[in-house]
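From the pipeline queue, job 12 of 40. The input is one protein chain; the requested action is below.

Action: predict structure.
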Amino acid sequence: MKLAELSWPQVDALNRDTPVVFPVAALEQHGHHMPVMTDSLLTEELVRRLETRFEKQVLFAPLTWLGNSHHHMDFPGTLSAEPRVYIDLLCGLLENFIAHGFKRLFILNGHGGNDVPGKQAVFEVRQRYRARKDLLLLFATYWNLGAEPWKADSSIQQRVMGHACEWETSMMLRIRPDLVGDLSRVVDVPFGNPFEPASRGWIMNDRSIPGHVGDPRDATAEKGEALFACFTEAAAQMLERVIRWDGVSWEG
């Protein structure tokens, strides 16, 4: 179900145990060969596939395209919310639907820079409702839900998400090849090891002059379909767990 297409009485008629998904992404630079709307376009396609699968079981809010992208601000075209503003925005989305009586709320993310503020948002909102045992507040980034796409397509080289990389470029070639530039003109930008397993503060031009990380030259539309299929299945499995949740348990 698409929230944007329902009237308020139709929303009011829904069972309050209906999961509500808030897709979030970004508008930011994606190197020389990809559009600034890449994260949002890819997340919208993932959500479209999930909407088809959970047509009557899950309520999907419209995608929030503004994200926390300050680490890309040296590249023109990027739009970014201040980190604290972004946390408050996500908290507000959750608070809105808690006010409407819904209890199973899931922020589904498609941009790496939203990961930390998204987790902080679900943490903060949970603290405001300490007496409630019936709230399920979740945040997840779609490529971190356990999918292993290289097992579905052995030609996929990457093992983790980069930026405007083999994965993202392949997915864009699958849905909007007209927006992908000349891949013969890009170069491999290695992932490197930025003091892992520590978490390092960074901005994109610490890592990449052209603005991408990984090797987009390995991308194909066929890989893109395999990636979408794997990521959609992993997200669907999480939504099925949300639907099955008994409403009180720690585990689900």
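Job complete. The chain is about 35% helix and 10% strand.
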